[in-house]
Amino acid sequence: MIQRLIEKIQKTKAPICVGLDPMLGFIPEEILKKSFQEFGETMEGAADAIWNFNKQIVDHTWDLIPCVKPQIAMYEQFGIEGLKVYERTVRYCQDKGLLVIGDAKRGDIGSTSAAYATAHLGKVKIGESLCRGFDTDFLTVNPYLGTDGIKPFTDICKAEDKGLFVLVKTSNPSSGEFQDQKINGVPLYELVADKVVEWGQDSMDNGYSNVGAVVGATYPEMSAVLRKKMPHTYFLVPGYGAQGATAQDLKPCFHEDGLGAIVNSSRGIIAAYRQEKYARFGAEHFAEASRQAVLDMAADINSVL
User: Fold this and answer.
1) 11 to 114, 157, 211, 240, 259: CA distances (angstroms)
2) Which of 68, 187, 201, 207 is the most buried (most CB within 10 A)?
3) Which residue segment(s) compose the domain that 70 sits in?
4) For helices 43-61 and 29-39, angle between their N-to-C axes, nearest 10 degrees
5) Which residues are tagged catalytic?
6) CATH number of the domain that 61 lies in?
């Protein structure tokens, strides 16, 4: 699966992942008004607005990017109706030829992790039928429970040719409360990195493993350390733009050939029309603003690679 992502990155020349993390506050008033008129100010109304917002974003950016990353929590807050839109968004993006990283950060013990892996990456047997759940191409996972929690995911990745991105060094300000703590003189995030390499050795796809790592751009010195420790691990990189990381901060995540990482941007793209830089588009043309934000982001990243 990781090779498919690399091929799409090379084709688009844009190592960019658009985070489809819709909040109602991001959605233009006209879309909300139309959905609420039809479904009321209900979970159904919110879900319909999110779907129409997502669809326009995807329709205006799909040809520029290799993948998207819907954050499932943004959909779960609207209950079952929100999850229906999450699934609908995943299918629509895949129909457009995009790879989908399900950002669910799952992870638990044995049978529970196996169920999560089945729900998001695999298939479940119902009677004599095999049915798929959300069926994303990649999934973010939390390694806190150790190998017991990760192995069900790596097993399904091997069987289904899917991929993972394991949390290693996240971009949020308080990540160091645990991740930077030292064990026998070694930071915890480096120990996790070693395990990610180990977990991925049995799932290589040409030069890279299908087991990738989440490495925040907000800590470039740590990114440089992790890049050396994990030469065959693809990085999913949050933190660019709205969280403060610059294109220069991204550079340590990449190899000299420009591969090795894909950079996520969520509100910086889907809510671009709210930025002064793109105010000329207005709410009516929010999706055109998102397209321009993708073009600008690609140019910014490529300027340092």
Assistant:
1) 34, 24, 22, 22, 12
2) 68
3) 2-302
4) 140
5) 105
6) 3.20.20.70
In one letter, which amino acid is 10?
A: Q
H/E stretch holding 211: strand 211-215
Closest CA to 18 of 78, 51, 59, 77: 59
Q: Would you state the structure tokens that stand for residue 55, as one six-digit string?
A: 């669809």
Residue pLDDT, tens place only, 129-147: 999 999 999 999 999 999 9
Per-residue pLDDT, 206: 86
Angle of CA points 30, 33, 35, to nearest 5°: 110
Residue 56 token pair: 């326009």
| Contacts of 112 by beta carbon, 8 Å cutoff, 6+ apart | none
Minimum mean pLDDT among 167-171, 233-237, 239-243: which range?
Answer: 239-243
Residue 195: is it exposed, middle or buried by C-beta count within 10 angstroms (0-12/13-18/19+)?
middle
The domain tally of the chain equals 1
Name the helix (H) or strand (E) containing 106.
strand 99-106
pTM: 0.96
Q: Which residue has tokens 């959909």?
A: 75
Span 106-126, pLDDT tens digits: 999 989 999 999 999 999 999
- The single residue listed with the structure tokens 């169920």 is 115
